[in-house]
Amino acid sequence: MRLLLYICIGIGLVLCGGSCGSSREGRGMSLSAGEYYDLGRYARLDEDWEGAVGYFEKALSAAERAGNDYYRGYACQQLSALWAIASEYRKALDYARSAASALEACGETAGALLSRLDMAWCHFQLGDPESARALLPPLRASGVLSLLDSPQAARLSQLASALGFPLEELVPAH
Question: Which domains, from first to last, does the chain contain?
Fold first, then answer.
């Protein structure tokens, strides 16, 4: 997988004429929020959790400097997921809240709602089922649940069952 990462970065450098990607970072030049975000995604695919956190934190910092709510939101969403994987639910909850706020601010409604699902999961894991329960009903009305990946769908199923929500009440019929 690491080889694939290097191939993708190499292709990006060729397409950018050598002026973007990790070569700029190596020369002490800043990358954009999007470039750091992409590197974080590659690191996450490679299961390099520490590297992924580092790149998403750099993406978040770059997005904040640029006033870019889109990348600020999605970087926070990724950081929330990574901290949840590490069972650091308080950190994950803080990042999920920031993600929802930033994504709402830039009109990314689906992303904001998925961050609310992450918030519900964190509340549940922290022993606050009432806060988790309060976040679930708006998700059904949004139709965003059809966008869930397998781990998210599994968490939703577990969450709905533990909170006494019949899953069919949350997931719209197709």
Answer: 2-7+31-168 (1.25.40.10)
